[in-house]
Design a protein that fits this description.
This protein is of the alpha/beta class. It has 3 domains: 14-140, Rossmann fold (3-Layer(aba) Sandwich); 153-280, Beta-Lactamase, CATH 3.30.450; 285-406, no CATH class. Helices cover 60% and strands 13% of the residues. The strands form 2 sheets. It has a 6-stranded antiparallel beta sheet, with helices on both faces. Helix 4 links the parallel strand 4 (88-92) and strand 5. The longest helix is centred in the last third of the chain and has 80 residues, at 255-334. The relative contact order is 0.05.
Length: 412
C-alpha cells in the first residue's frame, strides 16, 4: 500500500485511490491537495483492507490492475452494504465507448481517461462529493420523515385503542366489566398483564386468560404502595386508589413506544379508577336512598296510626261529653234545687263542657295538619316523590306545625 496521504485531516472528505502506478498517486494527491484526505492502495486486496479500516467518502480506481480488476472490484463493492452507495470514479487509459459502458455497468459513477487533467479530476471529484453528500442528506431526511410518519401512524393506532378502551370502561355497568375492558385494551396494545380492582367487600384480579394467577396477585399486593408508575425491566406497574395494572412484556427494545405506552396505560388506569369510584358512589347513594325511603315509610305508617288513634279519641271524648251533659241534665231534674242553684250548676257544667270542646277544636286543627304531613310522606315514599320536589318543602318542614303546606283542613 502506498502512503501518499498529505496528513490526517478528519474534517476533509476521505478519498481512496486504487492504482498500481505510483506516478498516478502523485498526480491525484496534487490535484486534491488541501481539499481531500487521500488514502492510497496499490491493488484490489489493499483496497479491501483500507476500506475495512476506514470507510472512504469517494473511491478513485484504475480499471486495469494486477489481480482483481477495477471492474470486478467495483462490482464487489456494490454488493457490500457499506459501499453500495459510495461514489466511484474510474481512471483508465481506454477511451472507447465500450470501455466506458463497461465501467458504468460495473457500478461506476464517472469515467476519467488517462492521461487526465488534474483540474478536471479535481472538479469531478469535488462535484461528486458534493452531489453524494446532498444525496445522503436527502436520504437521511426521507428516512427521518418515513420514521416520523410510521411513528405517527403507530401513535394514531395506539390512541384509537386507548379511546376504545376508555369508551368501554365508561359504559361498563359493573366492576368485572371494567376489568375486562382494561384487559381488552392492553391486549390490543399487544401487551400481557393483569388488572386488579379494589372495591368494597372484594378484589377483582383478571389477566388476559381470565382469573389472575396467585403470583400476579401477590406481585400487585406487594407493590401497591410504590410510586404511581413503577417500571422494573420489561415489567410495569401502575397504581391508583382502586385500580392497579401490571404489564409483564414491555417492548424494552423500543424506548419511544415504551414512553407512549406508559402515558396511554396511565390514562387507561385513571379512567378505570374514576369509573369504579362512580359506581361505588352510585351504589352507596342508592343504599342511602333506600334507607331513607324505608324510614319515610315507617314514619308515615306510625303517623297514620297516631292520626287514627287521635281521631278515635276525639270522637270518644265528644260522645262522653255529650253523654255526661245529658246525664247531668237528667240528674238536675230529679234534685230539688232552687232556680238560682240550678242556673249556677248549669253554668258551671256548660263552662267546663265548652272548655273541653274548645280544646278539641284546637286539636282538630293540629289533626288536620298531621293528616297533611302523612299525605306528603306518602308522596315522598312513592316513585314520583312530589312531596320532596315541591316548592319550599324540606325534611324539617314535614314535622313543623308552621308549615304553609299544612293549612289544608281536609282529612287524608
Amino acid at each position: 500500500m502506498f502512503d501518499d496521504s498529505p496528513g490526517d485531516t478528519p474534517t476533509l472528505p476521505l478519498v481512496l485511490l486504487v492504482d498500481d502506478e505510483r506516478f498516478t498517486h502523485g498526480l491525484v494527491a496534487e490535484a486534491l491537495k488541501g481539499h481531500c484526505e487521500l488514502m492510497s492502495a496499490g491493488d484490489g486486496a489493499d483496497a479491501v483492507m483500507a476500506i475495512e479500516s476506514r470507510l472512504p467518502d469517494l473511491i478513485i480506481m484504475d480499471v486495469e490492475m494486477p489481480g482483481i480488476t477495477g471492474l470486478d472490484l467495483c462490482r464487489a463493492l456494490r454488493e457490500s452494504a457499506a459501499t453500495a452507495n459510495t461514489p466511484i470514479i474510474f481512471l483508465s487509459g481506454h477511451d472507447e465507448i465500450v470501455d466506458r459502458v463497461a465501467g458504468y455497468s460495473a457500478g461506476g459513477d464517472d469515467y476519467v481517461v488517462k492521461p487526465f487533467s488534474m483540474r478536471e479530476l479535481h472538479a469531478k471529484t469535488m462535484n461528486m462529493l458534493e452531489s453524494f453528500q446532498l444525496l445522503r442528506e436527502t436520504r437521511s431526511t426521507a428516512e427521518f420523515a418515513t420514521s416520523t410518519a410510521m411513528t405517527a401512524m403507530s401513535n394514531m393506532g395506539e390512541l384509537s385503542v386507548l379511546l376504545e378502551g376508555l369508551k368501554a370502561i365508561n359504559t361498563a355497568r359493573d366492576f368485572r366489566k371494567i376489568a375486562e375492558a382494561v384487559i381488552t385494551a392492553i391486549s390490543d396494545f399487544s401487551l400481557q398483564g393483569a388488572v386488579q380492582l379494589r372495591v368494597p367487600g372484594q378484589e377483582i384480579t383478571l389477566n388476559c386468560h381470565g382469573e389472575a394467577s396467585p403470583v400476579e396477585v401477590a406481585v400487585i399486593a406487594q407493590m401497591v404502595d410504590l410510586d404511581r408508575i413503577f417500571q422494573f425491566g420489561k415489567r410495569l406497574l401502575i397504581t391508583y386508589d382502586r385500580v392497579s395494572l401490571l404489564i409483564s412484556n414491555l417492548p424494552i427494545d423500543d424506548p419511544d413506544r415504551i414512553g407512549r405506552l406508559r402515558d396511554h396505560l396511565a390514562m387507561l388506569c385513571e379512567g378505570a379508577d374514576v369509573r369504579v369510584q362512580a359506581i361505588v358512589s352510585a351504589r352507596e347513594s342508592k343504599q342511602r336512598g333506600d334507607t331513607i325511603g324505608q324510614t319515610l315509610t315507617d314514619i308515615s305508617d306510625a303517623l297514620k296510626e297516631i292520626d287514627i288513634a287521635q281521631r278515635n279519641s276525639r270522637m270518644a271524648t265528644n260522645m262522653a261529653v255529650s253523654t255526661m251533659s245529658e246525664n247531668i241534665g237528667n240528674a238536675l231534674l230529679s234534685v230539688a234545687l232552687s232556680e238560682a242553684q240550678e242556673d249556677y250548676l248549669t253554668g258551671v257544667i256548660r263552662t267546663g263542657v265548652d272548655s273541653i270542646l274548645d280544646t278539641h277544636s284546637s286539636e282538630h286543627t293540629l289533626q288536620d295538619r298531621l293528616s297533611r304531613v302523612i299525605r306528603d310522606l306518602k308522596a315522598a315514599c312513592s316513585d314520583e316523590k312530589p312531596g320532596l320536589h315541591g316548592p319550599g318543602l324540606i325534611w324539617s318542614d314535614l314535622f313543623s306545625v308552621d308549615n304553609e303546606l299544612l293549612d289544608d283542613d281536609q282529612a287524608p
